[in-house]
Amino acid sequence: MRHFGHISPTAREGLFFREPRAFTAESPARMLSVALGATLYSPATRPSLADDVLKQAARGVVSMVLCLEDSIDDAEVTDAEANLIRQFAALAARAAESGPAGRSPGDATGTADAADADIPLLFIRVREPAQITDLVRRLGDSVRMLSGFVLPKFTEERGRHFLEALAEAEAACGRRLFAMPVLESPELLHLETRGDILQGIARSVDKYRDRVLALRLGVTDFCSAYGLRRAPDMTAYDVHIVASVIADVVNVLGRADGTGFTITGPVWEYFRRQERMFKPQLRRSPFLEGSAEELRTALIEHDLDGLLREIELDRANGLLGKTCIHPSHVAPVHALSVVSHEEFTDAQDILSPERGGGGVLRSAYTNKMNEVKPHRAWAERTLQRAEVFGVAREDVGFVDLLAAGLTN
């Protein structure tokens, strides 16, 4: 797998100063946590799920969650589990046909084989801990297509049972399985319990640090606790009670001192045109050349201008990647995850060995101050993102990347 791997090598060469690196499901956890990108959710009840996974992979999706929880009715769980077993078997058979069976470890650089290129990182969102061990047992050999589990409504007490079940399932199948806890419980939202809940979550995930790939934010559940729903003209950061929780989660669990985790951005709920109360948020200036104005119009008509703004705010607030419930959201997330040439140049200058003693330097673009010690953590994270999303050429902007990502 690689980001923008669904476009031609010639097109990638024209877009990237440094192309995104390939990776597999067996790549280091540090790389995979950054590489998740737009994680597309799909109900586990879909009868054509295996075909859907392959179709989305061909459109640039590299991570998916197959959901047994909120996206399906309580009465559908048993049938959905059986469907997952069938669909994973179909995916395993398809991978075996297209290359070496299963997902191979690849080399030290994370080179993907032919089978890996067809299958995104796949996670199952379960309801209860017992489902983890049961599903791994029932999957049999096709468990090799599974990267891990999404753990809903995660708290210290509830999370402990999930993580213990994950460890048990991993030992039983002999494969590395990751956890992605979802932080969405009302206790985390409520001011009087937030601090204790966050500290408990921190203790829980720290104990299983090697298996916690990323933490996901359940902003829809946060809004539900107060009967709120953000409009397509607004981002999660405009809902102050939600923004305050995001800030506290990043404060405790997203630190850059080696104790933090990758925290992914909240879901964007809208994917078709709604009546607007406010003017579009998408500026015209990046879209002035060629047919880019048509792309701007299309984004506005599909309420994706608000999504673009929220992605930018996610990154500014310490989040990386995003939960997505519609394929049209994938390309914007990935386009805005690419490191600009200016960001890359600044990060390299800051991390230059001769700057080990600190100091201040003018950026190569002569438009800002780069202070070596305070900006070091930012630079390290930027180069991690550059590794998997690539570095755009100096004259390439997000409009070009977005248009390329929408080609399929």
UniProtKB/TrEMBL annotation:
Its cofactor is Mg(2+). InterPro entries: C-C_Bond_Lyase-like, Pyrv/PenolPyrv_kinase-like_dom, Pyrv_kinase-like_dom_sf. Pfam families: C-C_Bond_Lyase. The keyword Lyase applies. GO terms for molecular function: lyase activity. Keywords: Lyase, Magnesium, Metal-binding. Gene3D superfamilies: Phosphoenolpyruvate-binding domains. PANTHER family: CITRATE LYASE SUBUNIT BETA, LYASE BETA SUBUNIT, PUTATIVE (AFU_ORTHOLOGUE AFUA_4G13030)-RELATED. This is HpcH/HpaI aldolase/citrate lyase family protein. It comes from Streptomyces durocortorensis.
